[in-house]
Amino acid sequence: MPIQIALNHRQQQVLRATVRHYIATAEPVGSNVLVREYNMSVSSATIRNAMGMLEREGLLYQPHVSAGRVPSDSGYRLYVDHLMQPTLDTQAARTLNERLRVNWSLEAVLHGAAQILSTLSGYITLVTLPIKGQTEVRHIQLMQVDAQQIMLIVVTDSYETQSVLVSLSQPDDENDAELRERELQVLSNFLNEALQGKSLSDIGNLDWSVLGQQFDRYSHSMTTMLQQLAQRATQTNAPTQLMISGVSEVLRQPEFTELTQLQNLLSLLESQQDQLLPLFGEQISDERDRQVNVLIGAENPLEPMQSCSLISSTYSRGHQAVGSIGVLGPTRMAYESTIALVEATADYLSEAIS
């Protein structure tokens, strides 16, 4: 949530420098460090006064009496909202571009994106798989298996393939293979025209009266196959699954050396994924509305995540958002580069599946 605190230019400078130095070093920041390393062009006393004001406003705090200051959740929030500009490193952009512009299967694309994002960011990557109920028909093909069986093959708009094998109610005459092939091709063309772009869960309700008498002998088999596909789509429209990558990356962060905290976080990731999914927010209907969402520290409603930040965005098929991708790491996160990485990865995913 936005922080409504008015800071003058000097205070903004001090907060920005304090956040950046703490992110880089994980060490409390003193006024002498800021004067020496950030070209403040003022005395240590002036910096101390500014840091004292920021502490009174709850944007900084001292972990120990004799220590320097570190950013609070509110300090990070103000920094993210007002004092930084997301920046994508050129090499990171090149890596994303080269490794995600490959025509793999959908699962391979998502898995690759999760691995790349966790490697580049140094944090845990979370990817929700596309919502099954929104999967649409891209192409349909009927194939003769033998005199008594035909197969319906459906390719979805996410390039997943499903097939159903059904026995004919009236076995074909084996001496008329060429005619059967033509009939199945004509019927395939009809099905593509009738079903392309429709949801898998809706294709069991096709009106076969428009086919005419030449396809009567296929109608029972087709109805059976389409109903099976529709039933399968309904059954798989379960809660969206979560793909997780990069746990080993985040273990290198000093914030996760405390065993109990780490165990609680790993338990959440491994066995309580249903609680994580709502944090990605409701799916938006138009990719033009998409933005990166940042939850910092106590803004996360789940206790094991309240020392973490979650940065997420949605990826889309066409103009429809179908899933989310994000990173989870300590609040001492490199927000500028990580926000840009998440946004770029979501863009590449959208391109890959569209």
TrEMBL record:
Entries under SUPFAM superfamilies matching the protein: GAF domain-like, Winged helix' DNA-binding domain
UniProt keyword annotations, A-Z: Repressor, Stress response, Transcription, Transcription regulation
GO biological process, alphabetically ordered: negative regulation of DNA-templated transcription
Gene3D superfamilies: 3.30.450.40, Heat-inducible transcription repressor hrca homolog, domain 3, Winged helix-like DNA-binding domain superfamily/Winged helix DNA-binding domain
Molecular function GO terms recorded: DNA binding
Protein's UniProt keywords contain ATP-binding: no
Ranges for domain Heat-inducible transcription repressor HrcA C-terminal: 107-339
Function: Negative regulator of class I heat shock genes (grpE-dnaK-dnaJ and groELS operons). Prevents heat-shock induction of these operons.
PANTHER family given in the database record: HEAT-INDUCIBLE TRANSCRIPTION REPRESSOR HRCA
Similarity field: Belongs to the HrcA family.
The protein's name in its UniProt record: Heat-inducible transcription repressor HrcA
Species per Swiss-Prot/TrEMBL record: Romeriopsis navalis LEGE 11480
Gene: hrcA
